[in-house]
Design brief:
single chain, 258 residues, alpha/beta, seven-stranded mixed sheet, two-stranded parallel sheet, 9 helices, 9 strands, 21% strand, globular
């Protein structure tokens, strides 16, 4: 992918303008890069770049370690530059075990992941898979507890509040630093969540365009999506809908993230 605004350090270390080394590895596994207009805010360490053939096409992948929290994230990038000279597409995808792995219909996470990979493969860019952000940062066990409350009638916001947990505990400082290390200071963000745009801007990454990732809603997640639209200001139209086989308490199903 073509990056915009790569740091001088990246050029000195032999980077291409797509944020990757020509030999597929970093010289020391750690960049000294900085965000577009600030000092390094959140140190991260990058590993070697490898080929990643997938059902969505061929990508390159690089693991990144958050040196503050120890969390390990994955950058999955198109090997091709963005089309038409535009800023690269970037998706910050919060880990969602139930949606991403098991294809849960309680959320739209797995379908957004697939859609984003298809878009990045076609138009160029990077997906950052952010681990440790399950349930908008509350963790897997707490997310399942929140599910139980949702089945009792609470929405996704109310469930977290009933547990005494933040509505959204995610932090994007490490993600912003990874983008900066890759030379991605201006991006087109694949998201329906304007909060991500605001947080990235505060961390020094300029979002030049928000690219929607809305996927058709289902019986099992329509209330959750409506809650995100009404209470969390997600940019959703909810114009399309897929009817599914009726499930127990389907109208109370709800979920957790973008």
């Amino acid at each position: 992918m073509t990056a915009s605004g790569a740091t001088d350090d990246s050029h000195q270390n032999g980077h291409h303008n797509n944020g990757h080394h020509g030999n597929g590895q970093h010289s020391n596994g750690h960049h000294k890069g900085q965000t577009g207009n600030t000092k390094v805010l959140h140190p991260v360490s990058g590993g070697p770049i490898v080929q990643l053939p997938t059902a969505f096409g061929d990508f390159v992948a690089q693991a990144w370690t958050d040196l503050v929290t120890g969390a390990e994230h994955l950058a999955v990038s198109s090997p091709n530059p963005p089309k038409d000279g535009k800023a690269p597409l970037v998706r910050l995808h919060s880990e969602c075990l139930t949606g991403d792995i098991f294809g849960s219909y309680r959320c739209d996470c797995g379908e957004q992941l697939a859609y984003a990979l298809e878009m990045i493969q076609e138009f160029g860019g990077t997906l950052l898979y952010l681990r440790g952000q399950e349930g908008r940062g509350i963790g897997l066990a707490n997310k399942i507890k929140a599910y139980a409350l949702q089945e009792a009638g609470f929405d996704t916001v109310e469930a977290n509040e009933q547990l005494g947990l933040p509505v959204d505990a995610r932090c994007y400082n490490a993600a912003a630093q990874v983008l900066a290390e890759m030379g991605l200071h201006e991006v087109r963000l694949l998201s329906n969540n304007p909060d991500k745009q605001n947080r990235l801007a505060k961390a020094g990454v300029k979002v030049v365009e928000m690219v929607p990732t809305e996927v058709p809603s289902r019986d099992q997640n329509i209330r959750y999506l409506q809650t995100k639209k009404d209470r969390m200001e997600h940019r959703l139209t909810l114009d399309t809908h897929i009817a599914t086989v009726p499930a127990i308490a389907a109208d109370t199903f709800d979920h957790e993230q973008d």
